[in-house]
Amino acid sequence: MSRLAAALAEPRAPGAPVRVWRDWVLVAVLVLGTLVEGALRQDLSLRPLTVVVTLTLVWPLLVRRSQPLAAVVYAFGVVTTVMAVVALVTGGPASMYSAFPLITVAYALSRWASGRDAAVGLGVLLYSWGVSSLAEGSSVGDMVGGIVALGAIVETGWLVRLQDRSRRAALASARSLERERIARELHDTVAHHVSAIAVTAQAGKTVAATDPEAAVGALERIEEAASRTLGAMRSLVGSLRTDDTHAFGGGQDPTAAAGTPQQVPAQRSPTPGLADLEGLGRPVGHGPPVIIQVTGPTEPVPESTGSAIYRIVQESITNARRHAVDATSIHVAVRIGRQQVQIDVVDDGRAAAQRAPVLAGRPTDRAGRGELSYGLIGMAERASVLGGTFHAGSGPSGWRVRATLPLGRGMAP
Fold first, then answer.
1. Is the pTM here over 0.70, yes or no?
2. For residues 374 and 332, is the Cβ–Cβ distance under 8 A?
């Protein structure tokens, strides 16, 4: 009973598209097929009425995702009843083969509807199967085949729904885990600056009586450090505020293993940044050489942005070393301008086309499978938190990761 209650309490599946190009293809197939079949089939009972009623099935095809129960009730309840009455009165067939696109309506019921709507809709589907079988005098074999086919369609929709739910949970977990890591880095950055402020304040207090100018200089440095720290906190903490519930306790690494994010200890070392990029180019085993080039002044880059640059480059290099088969080199270019920082990481591995792309910070349908995709999700989240953009995908000569981070956020107001 508990499982039944949980199934009935199931909410509607999120992310249902209103219309896609496939819907119009189905509509075209239904309309053209109905008109041709109506013109050629001589055995149809009340042919004009049957054709007109079949054409009205365009409506449930177009609303099957937004209104799955209403679509099923009309297509398999109302229309089936009309066709059955026509068949019983005339003694001839009243169903048209061109109505086969309606299987997508049954699929949409289990794929998108809420638990209660799906239960009602299943009852309508069983009613349609029974009424159609009796009205057309179907054999036992046809009836069994019909119910098996109907069950397979509904089951397919449910399995796709479960798979999508699992994928969404994995994506949400990866994004949340990356935000936890960002929060820990923010803590380390703020702790560093606060410690520096405390030391500077103590020094200013010591020399205040004998050297007032030195004390004023200490106060100016305190003001600058406090303002920079406050700016970083405002930008990152504001971005980390979401409706999702997640604890900022022990960290997890979304790129640690294929399939499921794994638990890792929280880092206690200083947060790496731009100054640490050179270390990422050190040779590792027999992997391809890494060439890192940083252009532009590093002075205006906030620590939060520098940390994001380091993490994006680090993850990109790691992915290239693991997944770029026969790669001969990995090129990293970090260009620092007045308004933004652009990061490009390119390898020439031949396995690039098999990797799941992330466009504009949003993973595609193929993303969310395995360690590579979790890493892409983390990098996209890094860029998104700072108000930047992210793109990863196959390029002319291999796999390219490109991120653009603005320099306005994370700086002192």
1. no
2. no
